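Need tokens for this chain, all 222 residues.
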Amino acid sequence: MHALLDLLVPPRCAVCRLAGPLLCAACLSELPLLDGSTCARCGLPAERPVDDCASCRGRRVGFESAAAALLFEGAARDLVHAFKNGGLRGLAVPAAALMALVVGRPAVDVVTWVPADPLREAMRGYHPARLLAEQLALRWDVPSRPLLRAPLWRRPQRGLTRAQRRANVRKAFTAPVAVEGRVGLVDDVHTTGATLTAAALELRRAGAGAVVAATLARAEHA
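Here are the structure tokens for all 222 residues:
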């Protein structure tokens, strides 16, 4: 079936749109990898490794640490948009491979993801964060499980201020079962950290010993 589809609709790079693999070598080389110094707490790029930074210092975050593979700009932004809004669910494989390479394997017992609102997931046909989490779990050799639930519909975070983002996701997630051990929490983009924090706090309330966040991309300016 896939071979037939490739004949009818030849695959193209999600970034440059030239015929070839979903992520061509040229565009892969242009991706802004976050393989340099970052804040150990929130994952923001830094001139040198730091335990916390001006962006997260003094703020309550539910996760022990956060890391990302890419800076959310240029080719990385195009890649994320194609994955989230372009119907290219196959991008989960190279995206998770990048995350595994740059972020590395954290000390976690299970991997889960920030859940999508059921209506939004139904309209899209898939949930990018779940696909990433499942692919990462395979590479990290740990199980992946749906540990959180989201409301039927929630206002999108896009376009909201930091304060509005926090309010929009406050108590947005529930953990229907008890959670044990250290949890890897996966999402596609880390912007202000409001969504990751809300999800991580709920996991902690459900019993998680610690939550480690991992995302495909990290916005430098919230």
